[in-house]
Amino acid sequence: MKTITPLILLLFWAAPYLVFGQNIDQSRLLADMRTLSSDSMEGRAPMTEGGRMAREYIRERFESIGLGSQFPGYRQEFVLDAAKGAEGLGVNILGFIPGSASAEIILLLAHYDHLGKKGEAIYNGADDNASGTAALLEMAAYFSENLPRHSFLFVATDAEEKGLVGARALLRDFPFPLEEVKAVVNMDMISRSDDRTLYAVGTRFYPQFRPFLEAAAGRSSIRLVLGNDGGAGQKDWSKASDHGPFHERNIPFIYFGVDDHKDYHQPTDTFENIQPDFYVAACELILDTLLGMDQEMASE
């Protein structure tokens, strides 16, 4: 997904959970993540049985939540290129909640694919990216029960590990005019950080999101760093995951993620090695940011 980088730019130290509303269902979130990163899903590589099981799980959860979709069976299919290591059909899973006050769209992304198996070793991809996918399901559940002002499009993308292929396919076959997309929020690796640091990438290009991030950070128990988007002395993660193709089209984005760790793209990226307290706090911070964006941007 990206390379490791030192802490940079703005550090927002958070207050304890005194004001911060706890809206994430921790048990449901962790259960989804455990299932998606289990050995039975064999690393969720595109065009494998494990990948099929993962997307069926996501589809069933979208259906049980009550999301609509612009695609039959929630499935957006696209062709994979053998030159990129997989040949056949990839599948994005799309769910939709119409806005109560605005037709403009907040697009929430997380890729569900990972590296699959290599020999007998299973690359479970718990942090990368069962973490973002389970968070996507939890955000969808929250907004289905607390209807947003904006329309929300929830997309679990396939084949990110093959070169952001699912995100590019989504752009080619986007179900709405692209000018209606107010923000893209991508979650990719958000469940572990030894120094309790979550990064938010994109405010160098799209400073309109800074107030919402700063406000959410001030209510969180973890540290938020704004940066890693190519400023002086920084790494550049602005095209490192599925937000990249949207940024190339000048569609505003925020990307939430953590530094690479010793288990990145290793068989040891397992559910047992995540940090649940950090993960739940990161999801709360992201949801808090989304709530601010949804309320304030819809009234502009």
From TrEMBL:
The record's Gene Ontology biological-process terms are: proteolysis
| Molecular function as annotated in GO | metalloexopeptidase activity
InterPro entries associated with the record:
M28_fam, Peptidase_M28
**Superkingdom of source:** Bacteria
Q: Where is the Peptidase M28 domain?
A: 92-288
- What's a Pfam family this protein contains? Peptidase_M28
- Protein's name in the database: Peptidase family M28
